[in-house]
């Protein structure tokens, strides 16, 4: 889960999220909200994402500012759960 959080939050292509689904939602003003362990246990889900599923949350009053922040400054808005996983990854990573 820590690696997944880092992949979605920290891995970039030209400054934007490397994952195309994450990039789509973040461009539209969402918040990287929750990572669900074994949220998709279908054969496709296991093969594509090791069974993990991600929730993006849209706070309607914040979508415009979140989108502008992401597109302008390339900053990802994320929940405390995701940020905690990112911090754990960074502490334990040898990358």
How would the blueprint of this fold be written?
Elements: H1 2-9, E1 12-13, E2 16-17, H2 20-27, E3 31-36, H3 43-49, E4 53-57, H4 63-73, H5 80-92
Antiparallel strand pairs: 1-2, 3-4
Helix pairs in contact: 1-5
Protein name: DCMC protein
InterPro entries: Malonyl_CoA_deC, Malonyl_CoA_deC_C, Malonyl_CoA_deC_C_sf
Domain Malonyl-CoA decarboxylase C-terminal: 1-58
Report how far the terminal alpha carbons are from each other: 16 Å
Oligomer: single chain
Summed up, the domain count is: 1
Mean pLDDT: 95
Beta-strand share of residues: 15-25%
Helicity, in percent? 40-55%
Spatial strand arrangement across the major sheet:
1-2
Q: Describe it for me?
A:
With 95 residues, the chain is of the alpha+beta class. The protein has one domain. Helices cover 49% and strands 16% of the residues. The chain has five helices and four strands; from the N terminus they run H-E-E-H-E-H-E-H-H. It has helices at 2-9, 20-27, 43-49, 63-73, 80-92; strands at 12-13, 16-17, 31-36, 53-57. It has a two-stranded antiparallel sheet. Strands 3-4 form a two-stranded antiparallel sheet. A hairpin with a 2-residue loop joins strand 1 (12-13) and strand 2 (16-17). The two termini are 16 Å apart. It comes from Chloropsis hardwickii. GO terms for molecular function: malonyl-CoA decarboxylase activity. This is DCMC protein. Pfam families: MCD. Residues 1-58 form the Malonyl-CoA decarboxylase C-terminal domain.
């Amino acid at each position: 889960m820590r690696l997944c959080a880092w992949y979605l939050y920290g891995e970039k292509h030209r400054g934007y999220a490397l994952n195309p689904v994450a990039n789509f939602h973040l461009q539209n003003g969402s918040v990287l909200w929750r990572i669900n362990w074994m949220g998709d246990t279908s054969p496709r889900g296991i093969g594509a994402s090791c069974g993990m599923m991600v929730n993006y949350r849209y706070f309607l009053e914040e979508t415009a500012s979140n989108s502008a922040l992401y597109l302008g400054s390339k900053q990802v808005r994320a929940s405390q759960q995701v940020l905690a996983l990112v911090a754990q990854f960074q502490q334990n990573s040898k990358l």
